[in-house]
Structure formats: structure tokens, C-alpha cells
Amino acid sequence: MISEGTALTFAVIFGIITVLLVRSRDVRAWEAVCVGLFGVYLGQTPVIHTIHGLVTWTITGFSHT
Predict the structure, then answer these.
(1) Cα-based angle 17, 23, 25 (whole degrees, multiple of 5)
(2) Is 2 left (phi over 0), alpha (psi -120 to 50) or beta?
(3) Contacts of range 30-38, beta carbons closer than 8 Å, 24 or more positions apart
(4) Rounded Cα distance, 9 and 23, in Å
(5) What is the pLDDT of residues 9-28, one digit of tens each?
(6) What is the rounded CA–CA span in Å between residue 31 and residue 4?
(7) What is the C-alpha to C-alpha distance for residues 22 and 46, in angstroms, rounded to an integer?
């Protein structure tokens, strides 16, 4: 289960990225994924558990030493 604090943290991070992308008016594929993730974390849809697992898996994969 995802906690409110974790969801809020991800929503803020993806929200900041979204604002910066919208201001630049040039959205690439990976940037569109960030905007979509912001919407999922902000909306707290039922699919968030699957997406959060994928995001966590990706982040730990990049940060694993």
C-alpha cells in the first residue's frame, strides 16, 4: 500500500517537472511520461499501486550500486 506522504512527494516532484515542461513548450516522449505520472499520483487512481511499483523498481534500478 502506498502512503499519503509518498504519493504527495511523487506528485510534487512530477508536478514541478510538469510545470517546467509546459513552460518550455517542447514535450518529448519521456517528458510526456512524467506528465502522465503526475496525473496518476495526483488523482490517486486504483492503478497507482502498479505504477508505483514500476516507478520504485526503476528508481532503485538506477540508484543501485
Answers:
(1) 105
(2) beta
(3) 37/10, 38/11, 38/14
(4) 22
(5) 877 887 787 778 778 777 77
(6) 24
(7) 26
CA 37 to CA 54: how far, in whole Å? 11
Instruction: State the residue for C-alpha cell 496518476.
Output: 40
What single letter denotes the amino acid at residue 46?
P
Q: Are 18 and 27 in contact (CB under 8 A)?
A: no
**DSSP sequence for the chain:** ---HHHHHHHHHHHHHHHHHHHHHT---HHHHHHHHHHHHHHHT-TTHHHHHHHHHHHHHHHH--
Model pTM above 0.70: no
* One-letter amino acid for residue 45 of the chain: T
